Amino acid sequence: MDAEGTTAKRVVDEVSGWLRVFDDGSVDRTWTGPPEALLLMEPVPAFDTPRDGVTLHDLPGDPSLRLYLPSPPPPEGRREPLPVFLHFQGGGFCISRSSWLMYYQFYARLAASVPAAVVSVELPLAPEHRLPAAIDAGFAALLRLRALARDPEVELLRSVDFSRVFLIGDSSGGNLVHLVGARAWEEEEAFWSPLKVAGGILLQPGFVRSTRSRSELELRADSVFFTLDMLDKLLALGLPKGATKDHPYTCPMGEEAPPLEKVRLPPFLVGVADRDLIRDTNLEYCEAMKKAGKEVHVVITEGVSHSFYLNKFAVDNDPTTAKRTEELIAAINDFVRRH
């Protein structure tokens, strides 16, 4: 008990630096790791005066969305409808917010470079909301986009081509690209019209197995944002209770998952980092998809690790990370133009 005679809460689970789970079910996500990492977690407020090549708009709802629009728009003669990226952030289903600077600095750049509209989804977090909550929210975001596509009064989205929607996700957000894409493609085209999911982009997706892969055993974590301890504990908190990492949500190429041959999916681009702890299971997923006859384009980025492009410090100060990030954006742009 504390000084006032009330029973103090007890920590029953912890992911070092990131979150603590208490015996009453509450969760504390106060960052307790290196203070220099805090800048990447700062929320970026919405703004309508162009900055970094975009304007940024919040669309409250269920789920809430954040819209990046390239600004200023291209000259009149070169103006084409903008493809749409529907973005799912990573964080092992348990941490991170789509408003954080780490996401803003990359997705503002992507929106301005392609150019494209980027719509980030505010996802529910586990363990308060275990999977499939984030999958349901991703699908609900697609339904919101469909409603916006059918509403001619939405001035902000007049320049958007809803027939070219690309799902995109970082780390565990890449899992959502696969899972939401599969659910979306269960429906007939008329259900979505005029919206169409034209493709998916999975950036170092959180695909794993219960047994350690060779890359998990041999590579060393080089960032507080991704360690084996985080991988194990966040997925244990994010998956349905009692599930292992062999669950279809984290191992769609595994024995517990539906056969990939029977899963309808749009074309995918999968980004793999050669120093990523989960590189080998990423590659296993790509090979399983190809074997199942799916259209999969694989981009292997050398010399960098998990979600390298989200680390603003490295992107700004390390020439290798900066170059690899440029190459990744170019690969995404090429994929979008071909689909």
Automatic annotation (TrEMBL):
Alpha/beta hydrolase fold-3 domain ranges (all copies): 86-309
MF GO annotations: hydrolase activity
Pfam name, any one: Abhydrolase_3
Protein name: Alpha/beta hydrolase fold-3 domain-containing protein
The species this protein was found in: Ensete ventricosum
Lineage of the organism: Eukaryota, Viridiplantae, Streptophyta, Embryophyta, Tracheophyta
